[in-house]
Amino acid sequence: MSIVMRVFATFVVVFWPALSGAAEQLKLAEISAYLNGITTLQSDFRQFNADGSVSTGTLYIRRPGRMRFEYDPPEQALVIAAASAVVIIDQKSNQPSETYPLSRTPLSLILDRDIDLTRAGMVRNARFDGTATIVTAFVPDEPDAGYIELAFTDQPTRLRDWVITDATGGQTRIVLGELETGMNLPAALFDAGRETSRANR
């Protein structure tokens, strides 16, 4: 299994915000409203892998349910969430793509049609570290699917970092550049079947 495939069992996504003024703790309802307000998102990212290597690429999100991590050369990898599944395609590995149910990953909490962090049993902990509101949440019906830790700054509300940890404690970090939202992202970007066919040619 390639580094990219191992890494994407879990990962961390970090958003660099523009900080201004005194930070305050955000309410879960405010955070839910912010996430629900994101329909599409695009950003460059830098991925710090567990072995110390670094990869770069572009992240695309189209809610509900769709996400794409597209890696720059020399990597030849894609991670696509769509149609209730997460598909990992790595042309360099010469192995078939790997598919996991989206519902069994904490990604489903971010890509849901209606995100409600106030839902009973979803948030394990919410705290303020002096600069950000940090929310630890998990999929209520999938206790073994790992958990997600999201940090949000205020003024304006913005997702700063996103940590997904599986049952073994595996993690990855991805630092994003400037976030762009509200653009048109075609459905073809999230067509895992098409990308798998291309990889097999």
Structure description:
With 201 residues, the chain is mainly beta. 13% of the residues lie in helices and 38% in strands. Strands 1, 2, 3, 4, 5, 6, 7, 8, 9, 10, 11, 12 and 13 form a 13-stranded mixed sheet that branches. Strand 3 (54-62) and strand 4 form a beta hairpin. The longest helix is centred in the first third of the chain and has 9 residues, at 28-36. Mean pLDDT is 83; it is low at 9-20.
What is shown here, in short?
The chain is 13% helix and 38% strand.
Write the layout of secondary structure elements.
Blueprint (H helix, E strand, L loop, with lengths): L2 H5 L4 E4 L12 H9 L3 E9 L5 E9 L3 E6 L5 E6 L2 E6 L7 E4 L5 H5 L11 E6 L4 E6 L8 E7 L4 E8 L7 E4 L3 E2 L10 H8 L2
Parallel strand pairs: 1-12
Antiparallel strand pairs: 1-11, 2-3, 2-12, 2-13, 3-4, 4-5, 5-6, 6-7, 8-9, 9-10, 10-11
Question: What summary fits the major beta sheet?
Answer: 13 strands, mixed
CATH-defined fold name: outer membrane lipoprotein receptor (LolB), chain A
How large is the share of residues in beta strands? 35-45%
Order of helices and strands: HEHEEEEEEHEEEEEEH
Radius of gyration: 16 Å
What overall form do the CA principal axes indicate?
globular
Helix amount, in percent? 10-25%
CATH superfamily heading: Lipoprotein localisation LolA/LolB/LppX
Let me know the average pLDDT: 83
**CA distance, first residue to last residue:** 20 Å
Overall domain count = 1
Identify low-pLDDT runs: 9-20
Total count of helical runs of at least 4 residues: 4
Secondary-structure arrangement, i.e. CATH architecture: Clam
Number of strands: 13
The SS-based structural class is mainly beta
Report the CATH C-level class.
Mainly Beta
